[in-house]
Amino acid sequence: MDIALIRLSGMKLSFTGAYNPLLILRNKEIIIIKGDKAPIGKSDRSTNFTPHEVDLNKGNCLYLFSDGYPDQFGGPKGKKFMSKRLKALLISIGHLPMEKQKDHLQTAFNEWKGINEQVDDVCIAGIRI
User: Do residues 16 and 35 touch, judged by C-beta distance below 8 A?
Assistant: First the structure.
């Protein structure tokens, strides 16, 4: 199973991920904190997951997400949405209130997907500090 976990304590963030990253939007730039390339749960090898500590600033936006959004097929050529396009979208909407960001993310996903079948679960959690 893939997962991304955070703990907030004041303006400090702790993050650990199994495959999934944490994205931090700060001053119109995306900071990527990568998760480990290992699943949680049953595995042939034992994994010690890497803890990451990050100082946050007021106004930073944090994004945790499943692979369903970037892996969705669609667009004019039936290709995957991809993480690069998701990051660009988050930068373009990051100044908006979180509820408006949600609306933009849903609209962009549905427009990209078009008539294609949804290929996976889609989950994006956004938090503004």
Answer: yes
50-76 CB burial, b ≥16 within 10 A, e <16: eeeebebeeebbbbbbbbbbbebbbbe
Question: 11-68, pLDDT tens digit by residue?
Answer: 999 999 998 999 999 999 999 999 998 888 766 766 788 999 999 999 999 999 999 9
Amino acid occupying residue 7:
R
The SS3 assignment for 56 reads coil
Domains of the chain, earliest start first? 3-128 (3.60.40.10)
Asked if 21 contacts 35 with a C-beta cutoff of 8 angstroms, the reply is: yes
Q: What value does the mean pLDDT of the chain take? A: 94
